[in-house]
Amino acid sequence: MATTPVVDIHTHIYPTTYLTLLRSRTKVPYLLDLPDKMAPPRLIILPSDDDPALPAHQRGRPIDSSYSSINQKLDFMKTHGITTSVISLANPWLDFLSPEEGPQWAAKVNNELEDICSTSQNSLYAFATLPLSASSSRITGEIHRLQSLAHMRGIILGTTGLSQGLDDPALEPVWSALESAKLLIFLHPHYGLPSSVYGPRASEYGHVLPLSLGFPMETTIAFTRMWLSGVFDRHPKLKVLIAHAGGTVPFLSGRINSCVQHERHFPENEGGGRGPKRGLKEVLRENVWLDAVVYSPTGVRAAVEVVGKDRVLFGTDHPFFPPLDEGKEEWMSVETNIQAVKDAFGEDKQGATKVLGGNAIELLGLDVAGDG
Ligand code: URA
Ligand code: ZN
């Protein structure tokens, strides 16, 4: 029986190359093997994880085989009816490497991703990673090289850019290279907000505050800085997919726009000429795609309202947010997101089908089995 393709554009992996790199390190981020060989190693991913007062098995996060096994990724896809996945390296990517180390590791990781995809009978594609600590010519060199890797459909990018954020003028050659290579930028958070905003009781709530609020605010601020600094004026063909349904961009776009219109610092409001030329509404409709990793129909509807129903794409964030009951095959996080898309579209079954797969196939030129 023919099936309707379901495409997951937000799904991560720590390939073997990357785990080797993390194991070789003793500073954050690094991988800590435990004396109990049966226990998964711990990923010390944030400075707050690196707490010597805690026993090793309580530091950071457990990184079991679901973070690196392709067979487990394929099994997960089968369980949830996902036809095709566009895999990306999980945070914190290569942000922490020295300028000399970055390019060789980027090439190794990207080559491994390409190898994985090329043996997957078109069920896997990838977003590559960039050596952002290196010189801009080395970064653009990797962008050009990616065009020779058949399964690359874009790059995953954190919010710090070359270290100064995404409104940094030094990023201009990188934006130009991505624009001319027609590679989608998958904008994804990692750093969250300063831990002081979570207050002295933060540890009582585990990762709830940083993941539910810190991540989306981080992405919102990064994208807004890109827009404010005129990146989309200078690069009108740049394509950005914002993680987690745009953070809070759909909800706050009116307020962001209004603040710009009332800001005397932008002289064009008083007849001068600074600030973004292309309005936020236009950029959201022409340069931006949003994933549907938002766990509610309200969030999906907001995303659809600001970018349009052809520009919202299903994702899972696998292998993050697994069921707490380890014996369970179906993931609540995935089922919630599928249901949210269906509920948001109601009777418009075709709209839901496009968000679940059709939009990604068209945007990324995926060769996918099924009848659409
Ligand atoms: N999702 C991610 O992609 N990264 C995290 O660190 C946590 C959730
Ligand atoms: Zn993610």
Automatic annotation (TrEMBL):
Keywords: Decarboxylase, Lyase. Residues 8-366 form the Amidohydrolase-related domain. GO terms for biological process: secondary metabolic process. InterPro entries: ACMSD, Amidohydro-rel, Metal_Hydrolase. GO terms for cellular component: cytosol. SUPFAM superfamilies: Metallo-dependent hydrolases (SSF51556). The keyword Hydrolase does not apply. One of its GO terms (molecular function) is carboxy-lyase activity. It comes from the Eukaryota. Belongs to the metallo-dependent hydrolases superfamily. This is Amidohydrolase-related domain-containing protein. The lineage of its organism: Eukaryota, Fungi, Dikarya, Ascomycota, Pezizomycotina.
